[in-house]
Input
Amino acid sequence: MNWMKKGIKILSVLFPVGMMTLAGCGTSSNGELTGVLHREKWFQPDPYGMVYIPSGSFTMGPSDQDVPYAITAQGKTVTIPAFYMDNTEITNNEYRQFVYWVQDSLAHRLIGGDHILEEGEYMERINWRAKIKWDDEQNQEVLAELYLPESERFYRRKEIDSRKLNFEYYWIDLKEAAQRENREQGKVDRSVFIKKDVINVYPDTLAWIHDYTYSYHEPLTKMYFWHPAYDDYPVVGVNWKQARAFCIWRTQLMNTYLADNGSSYVQDFRLPTEAEWEYAARGGLELSPFPWGGPYIRNSRGCFLGNFKPMRGSYQDDGGVYTVKATSYWPNDYGLYCMAGNVSEWTSNAFDESAYSFTHDISTDYEYDAKDSDPPAMKRKVIRGGSWKDVQYYLQTGTRSYEYQDTSKCYIGFRCVQSFLGRDKADY
Output
């Protein structure tokens, strides 16, 4: 029983175990099979900043125009259940909320007392209503370890040490739990399926410099993530693990609010699968090379429809030199902005050149949780959409590329998705 208590304790923090709790059925059914009475009436609200993507089928892969690529990556008809997707890439200001949350959670734990509602072996329950008095003399002494040491301060500025902004998070490896040898109830300690990771959440602002040699990107390094001028620009310098951690944090932020208000939990926020991303990018247009439809990168007036590299050295011709605001250019027919250009986007999928040939044709997915000891080829994650520094080819909806999960780039961002609860919005 100890392992059960341990497992339930972990899951009560991170997963909707309460939804599985059995309540008394009562006696009002008059002996008839009525199902559990007095269940909560459920309506799926649209998550803030997300758009609804209806279920459907499409031909995944390169368009007919990309003949050489189609030889090695043939198209495949797949079906995608309904889901929600962020209408823009996650912005600097949205990701900054995550960074601030981690910073404040560390401060609450250091102060202790009424800032902690409940101690836990795995995670404390923080009293977020308690105000952090950063200027209090007693608190300053306690919180001193969050700041840069004096020897590292620039002009003696007292700043938070970003190296301390570590986020501890958990998830369940359902694919491992579903393996045949692990399915027998009561015979496997389910705590082995609960995975833990700790990651620093601060974006790599130096990516603007280390990605390019002999190029002056210092202004963006200094200001891009923090200055209000860039609040609505897509966050960059975030590796795949940081993007995944953001999704888990976002899920717990929402579920904690729902639990406090007596509401049911929602589906997890997560990175989109490669198939979901392409399906959403097409905007309901079959075999369309670009999210806006048609084979051209310009509209009828000759204006570019995305932020990319039009010609060698002429980055500004499309209206932006580097990244642009996440709502720039016209959205596709689903209401999604910048599904082509601006920043490439992480997906949840591992990269394999032949993935189309062995993945299932419903909810197509190929994931691998690479370990630090794995060879580099196993750490490749699919990125989609092309970026401000890419040529037109990478902006096509069917073009695949990859980057290593532990790398951060000044041209890669992400957006979240959430599976829809039910069949279709029309059911509600």
In short: Confidence is low (pLDDT under 50) at residues 1-23. The radius of gyration is 24 Å.
